[in-house]
Amino acid sequence: MTPLGNGWARGVSLAAAASLALAVTVYPRGLTHEGVLLNHGLLSLLMWGMSAGFVHGVGFDPNNRYLRVLLGPFIAWPLLLLGWTLFVRNYLS
Who has greater pLDDT, 83 or 29? Predict the structure, then answer.
């Protein structure tokens, strides 16, 4: 088991992914800045981060090592942080 495979890390991933998904669902305009929509590529990265956060958060560990990296916390956490940063920055401005 990796250091980020225990309960607290999975809880952080699940909480961050669920809260960002809820925030984007309830208030999607939080991802716009002065009426300008978010770039499609950047939105795809945010969706990847949320998906990876959910996968890691529920405790699923893929057997394929590449998928384990792509859906693990080392990818999910920076993308979730980026998503929350964009959401809060655009929401407050």
Answer: 83
3-state secondary structure of 63: coil
* 36/16 Cα distance (integer angstroms): 25
Contacts of 31 (CB under 8 A, 6+ apart): 24, 37, 38, 43, 46, 86, 87, 90
What value does the mean pLDDT of the chain take?
90
State the pTM of this model.
0.90
13 touches 57 (CB < 8 A): yes
Token digits of residue 16: 């961050």
* Mean pLDDT computed over 52-70: 95
- Identify whether the C-beta of residue 86 lies closer than 8 Å to the C-beta of residue 38: yes
Q: Residue 36's beta-bridge partner residues?
A: 33
35: left (phi over 0), alpha (psi -120 to 50) or beta: left
